[in-house]
Predict the structure.
Amino acid sequence: MFLDSILLPVFGDAYVLTGTAITPVLRGRALALATPANLAGRGIAGRLTAAWIYGCSGPGATITLLVDSAHRAGALQPGSGCTLHEVKLSRFDIAVIGTMPVTTPLRTAVDLAIHVPAVDALPALRALAADPALNCPLGLIRQALQSCQRVPHKQAALERIQSLLEERMDSAG
């Protein structure tokens, strides 16, 4: 049915009928189906994977899952297509979209600015900041980064956000 253009791929083995809008809820459900069983319900989609769920980037080559460092993560099976990071998460950093736990737009933006190479991070940050439904303007991202303490690459992340703010000012004026 995919070859006949009746179905469109969402992610992995998840498909929808042609003409169906692929929403964050559908992307979240599709990702939940692709999450390794030992991390179901504990792995939180983060970084570029979260940005993809929000509709702000492509799906990326691998699924990025975050697990709160207060809990044991378990091991990923070879060939799972996932990367796993143990991080500090608060309950305010997590939302559930579809059936998939995902970092909030603000936490996603902060993580993108700090951990993702600029070539991938900047377009996703632009899109996150531009979507009023996500309530994640560049100024708020900058404030969140400034409030981080003892975070490696914080200065580089702030410089990325500053470059986006300057880019926006140049295009407005």
About this structure: The chain has a mean pLDDT of 92. The chain has one domain: 8-172. The helical segments are 24-34, 47-53, 105-115, 118-130, 138-147, 154-172.
